[in-house]
Amino acid sequence: MKKISLRLRFTLTASVFLFVSCTVLAFLSNFSANKMVEAIELQPSVAVQEGDVLFFPLEEIQPAIATEAQKSYHVFRTESIVATICIVTVGSLATYFASGYVLKPIRTLSQEVEKRNATNLEKQIPIPQSADEIQQLTVSFNHMLKQLQHAFELQKQFSADAAHELRTPLAVMQAKLDVFSMSEQRLEDVDSLVASMNQQLDRLNALIEELLWFSRDLPLEECRDVPLDLLISDVAEELSCVAEEKQITLTLDGENCVVQGQDNLLERVFYNLIENAIKYSAPSSHVSIRTKHQENHILVDVIDEGEGIPQEYRELVFEPFFRIDKSRSRLVGGSGLGLAVCKKILERHGASICVLEHQGGGSIFRVIFPS
Question: Stretch 114-124: mean pLDDT, rounded?
Fold first, then answer.
């Protein structure tokens, strides 16, 4: 029953009620008619004389009356069954169409709710003119949308403000370290200290960039054809030096696929995915990127040979700042926002991303574009 619509459930309930009511009514009517037929059959025969008129004894006509009564009873029973079927059928159809009319405001509200997402929460749902529960529900939902919009705005504003506030002191620290690095008067072991501080500054700068990306609305203002094979090839070439440091082989394989979107945003997505695949793969392993058409979709798989991601974490990895192994994440670096940014950009393109298990060990990050 959970998978049946409210309209059909209401119709089935009304049909069962009509069927039971008509069946009981027909049974009682037939029971009464049968009693009448039995009474006619058992009626005694009496001859009556009124004046000069003498009625014939009923013994001669009683069998004929009983036979006609039985025929009438059978006709009545047949007609009652047909009437029951007709009433239930017509009543069910009438209930179905009447419930469609009554439930139309709910269906309209459901369609409007489905259109709302994080990008258009400010758009209020039209309030129906009828002063009923649907109107009150719409008003309550609009109030909830307003509160959600305010919460999203606060979150985005906080991320943007935090990133901008952190940028200035980091830039000053970086400049002073650069000046100090060029100085000839340095103590022993200072080089390792400067290198460590530079590494941490680079990590903080990466976190700030990811925060800025995550706080943006990332609107798709100028969508155009983006050839994925060329875009991924450019990204792989840019990351080839990072792969060479770990002696990781990058392989590109697939078809010429074109999607609609913004190339700079999609470049950010595949840069993050391929960079993560390199970071979390073992040295001297293999990372492959495959693109292919499948039915009405375009699939891009980024396959690594790392430790893999457990089943219970495959959706959580796209949440901001989520880490499976925090100690290992600190060793390989990363801000914890890369995959969240990827998911956000792909949702703007009407695409999705998921994690699959790789049979040879490791993970498959699959991006699904509508073709």
Answer: 76
The per-residue pLDDT for 186 is: 61
Amino acid at 9: R
Average pLDDT over residues 80-88: 81
Name the percent of the chain lying above pLDDT 70: 76
C-alpha distances (whole Å) from 45 to each of 26, 49, 52, 58, 64 are: 32, 13, 20, 5, 13
State the Cα–Cα distance between residues 52 and 54, nearest whole angstrom: 7
pLDDT in tens, 313-365: 888 888 877 777 655 555 555 556 788 888 888 988 889 999 998 887 889 99
pTM summary value? 0.54
Region at 259 (left for phi over 0; alpha for psi -120 to 50; beta for the rest): beta
| 194/188 Cα distance (integer angstroms) | 11
Q: Report whether pLDDT(303) > 80.
A: yes
Planar angle of CA 246, 263, 265, nearest 5 degrees: 70
Amino acid 287: pLDDT: 92
Residue (of 247, 256, 208) closest to 229 by Cα position? 256
pLDDT score recorded for residue 3: 66
The whole-angstrom separation of Cα 76 and Cα 37 is: 12
